[in-house]
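REQUEST ID: PR-0412
SUBMITTED BY: lab tech R.K.
PRIORITY: routine
TASK: structure prediction, single protein chain
INPUT:
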Amino acid sequence: MFTDELGGPEVYERVLGARTFRDALEGVLERDDAWWCDDKATPAAERCAQLADRALGAALDELQARFGPDIGQWQWGRAHQARSEHRPFSRVQALAPLFELRVPTGGDTYTVNVGRVGVKADPGTGELYLNDHAASLRAIYDLGDPSRSRVMHSSGQSGLPWSRRYRDFSDAWARVAYVPLWPAPDASPGEVQRLRPRGP
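STATUS: complete
OUTPUT:
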């Protein structure tokens, strides 16, 4: 809708393509603003309804090609993956699956639990719709009763890929679950690590 009026595909993609212009898009559609909706590259004068129909058709074609003809099997999380990249091994195609963390997520750029949608293809993998910006740390602090404080991190408790703690929070993070910030008073010794200063 905005490409031809804002300098053509090359300029738009280079300068503005990463932005969604959602408010502007909604305004044009609400006003049925024919000047913005008209594709200046064609002799016909397109209306907003025609562009909306074309966009819906293209989206349905893309989804069917990617996820099959059964709409009941389509899941947003299959396309909208939160990816915790590993530096540098996410850039090595053969090593990326071993080191980077991925988890299906809900939401989008405009939901309360933001999971910004990558509308441009990922330069490394070519994937669309990755969750490329979200809260890596969530915390609820109870100042009246600190024992009720909760936290969650998007990956795991260890930065070592061979540790079982490397990815142990990913699924819980995607479900917007939490773990206690402080151990329970009756926690077993195996669940609590205490650090004591060395004696004199």
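NOTES: The mean pLDDT is 86.
REVIEWED BY: pending
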